[in-house]
Amino acid sequence: MTNEVQIYKSGLAKANDVYLPQIKQQLADHAIAMNDYQKTCVLNAMTAINEVIVKDGIDYNNLDQSNITKTLLNVAALELNAAATPREVYFITRNQTQGGQKVKVIEMGIEGDGNDAILTRFGRNVKKLHKFWEVRENDDFSYPSFNGLEMTPPKWSPKGRGKVVKVVYPIELTDGTIEYHIAEREDVKRNLLAHMFNNLMWDKSKADKKNKIKEFAEEHTLDEILDSEEMQTLGNISPAWKEPQSREAMIVRKMRNNITKKVPKDFSNAYIESAVQQVEDEAAERQYEIKQAEVIEEITTNANSEDFEIEEKPDDREKNKTVETEGKHETASITDAADEILNQSETPKDAEEHEEVDIFEEEDEYPF
């Protein structure tokens, strides 16, 4: 316990003595004046990182220090608070090879109200993001109507019973008008299909399985897909999607994200925009490595019982169009890369304990 307290104190002391001045200077270099709330976000992030370090039993000195600085810099730039309720950001550790050496790095992921916070701060002409509505199947709800440019707002009478079938975000703009953005439960089917197809990344029978999934999805609802044992097996649907205790929260979160991520943003600073892109890229890279580890483990487990093929990383296909399979050279297709690899950012296994199950992922939809 004493050692844990020591790690905790030394980490926070380092945040105050070393990281904060560095981050303040680097933000200034990018024409961003560090405010008190950004400082609070950095300190709360450092507290959360220390908790992860203690939990994983990692020596603070074995962490890549430049990685920690970069992570805290992104937290400050995006103004994400790890101490908010619900939390807006969380952190995990993972191994990364640098110069032939394996080092521990810290990675951040957006969770809880993180996407809402980003929309509130950086939404184009957004003055206020009002509390979203969870419209249930037994509620009375009427859609907005239009008479030319005149809009009649939607009406909602909650009854408090049934599944959430739509989410409505009233967004107040700087000119005083209010827009009502609506996401439907059935639209989450596209998010689920992207998740399922991503899980088939290295599956030998992926083409056949994808066709079966698409045929089933065209004739069935989101809930029917999640209830189908055949679909659960074919798409290797994660527990976060199908388990009763997390299923509804997942669907509501996806509906919310389908709205907040599509509202135009104006970051007004190139660095802040690059910070968002970096979080997305790291999430996609982490997902690729997780899938690669899973297939290697499966090959090891089933050695000499069945032949497996590992595809090249999507980014490398352009460089290496020819692959060797059973002693013969075949041309690897790159035209179907977008369909096969959707660059999803579903939560890795070591982060499934978090309520938020996507890490600021790109549009995780599969178009029919």
Report on the structure:
The structure is a single chain. This protein is of the alpha+beta class and 368 residues long. The protein has three domains: 109 residues, no CATH class; 62 residues, no CATH class; 158 residues, no CATH class. The protein is built from twelve helices and twelve strands. A hairpin with a 2-residue loop joins β6 and β7. α1 packs antiparallel against α2, α1 packs across α3 and α2 packs across α3. The longest helix is centred in the last third of the chain and has 32 residues. The chain is globular and about 55 Å long. The N and C termini lie far apart (54 Å). The C terminus is likely disordered.
Topology:
Blueprint: H1 2-29, H2 36-56, H3 65-78, E1 89-98, E2 101-110, H4 114-122, E3 126-129, E4 133-136, E5 140-142, E6 145-147, E7 150-152, E8 155-157, E9 164-173, E10 178-184, H5 188-199, H6 206-219, H7 222-227, H8 229-234, H9 239-242, H10 244-260, H11 270-301, E11 322-325, E12 328-331, H12 337-340
Antiparallel strand pairs: 1-2, 3-9, 4-9, 5-8, 6-7, 9-10, 11-12
Helix pairs in contact: 1-2, 1-3, 2-3
